[in-house]
Specification:
The protein is an alpha/beta fold. The chain has a single domain, classed as 3-Layer(aba) Sandwich (Rossmann fold), CATH 3.40.50. The chain is built from seven helices and six strands; from the N terminus they run E-H-E-H-H-E-H-H-E-H-E-E-H. Strands 1, 2, 3, 4, 5 and 6 form a six-stranded parallel beta sheet that branches. Helix 1 links the parallel strand 1 and strand 2. Helix 1 crosses helix 7. It binds flavin mononucleotide. The site of flavin mononucleotide has 19 residues, from helix 1 and strand 4.
Length: 206
């Protein structure tokens, strides 16, 4: 059972990555293999909307997306950790999600089979049955909207979403500072989140 953490901050000393590392560590203590991929420095362009993935089952744009998508499809759980930018996900994460979600839909399904016929026969996405959860970090406000954005992506892509005793949000970054330790409550939330992810993974893979 493997959990992939996607760290989506462009900052080297990242608050969201610190919370993600903590959560991945909590998962490995519960027997889950973990890996982190850092989007910082990776070249992932926005989706061009060309629909070629619906026919060819691959993305026409060749950049670092392919390597990240391969890690996503190999994982049993994916955690998305990111700074909140204007109450939303940061742009590179959105680019990854647009491309991964659309390609992931068409790898198993035939878009032409559904046209004008009331829908195609659903064969699942590249992410069906995987466990997913967001970790949204902001200095002050906007977590809920950005968190909900990721939930919408997860739930349209056939993930199983795990919760905790509060939303997975961290409050950090005053003046750009790296200070996740100022929000100790977040660690309790993320620890319980890891407990839930591990428990669901163990049941799914029993
Ligand atoms: C372009 C930009 C937009 C931001 N928008 C918000 C926001 O909407 N709400 C907020 O509370 N903080 C906002 N912040 C602050 C970051 O979310 C905060 O500093 C966070 O801790 C950074 O996480 P990181 O270190 O993982 O990049 C913004 C920062 C930047 C650079």
């Amino acid at each position: 059972m493997r959990a992939l953490g996607i760290s989506a901050s462009p900052r080297e000393d990242s608050n969201s990555r610190a919370y993600l590392e903590f959560t991945l560590n909590e998962l490995s203590e519960r027997g889950i293999e973990t890996e982190m991929v850092n989007l910082r420095g990776l070249d992932i362009s926005e989706c061009r909307g060309c629909y070629s993935c619906a026919k060819t089952k691959e993305c026409a744009q060749k950049d670092d997306f392919q390597a990240v998508f391969a890690k996503m499809t190999a994982a049993d759980a994916i955690l998305f950790a990111y700074p909140v930018y204007h109450a939303s996900e940061p742009a590179k994460l959105k680019a990854l999600m647009d491309r991964a979600g659309f390609l992931g839909r068409w790898v198993n399904n035939d878009i032409s089979a559904g046209q004008g016929k009331g829908g195609y026969q659903w064969k699942g996405t590249a992410f069906s049955g995987k466990v997913g959860t967001p970790i949204a970090v902001a200095r002050r406000a906007g977590h809920a909207f950005a968190f909900a954005q990721t939930l919408l992506w997860l739930t349209v892509n056939d993930f199983i979403v795990t919760g905790s005793h509060y939303w997975n949000v961290g409050v950090a970054g005053t003046g750009g500072k790296v200070n996740p330790e100022d929000d100790q409550e977040a660690y309790g939330i993320l620890s319980h989140q890891a407990e839930n992810i591990a428990s669901v993974l163990k049941k799914l893979h029993a």
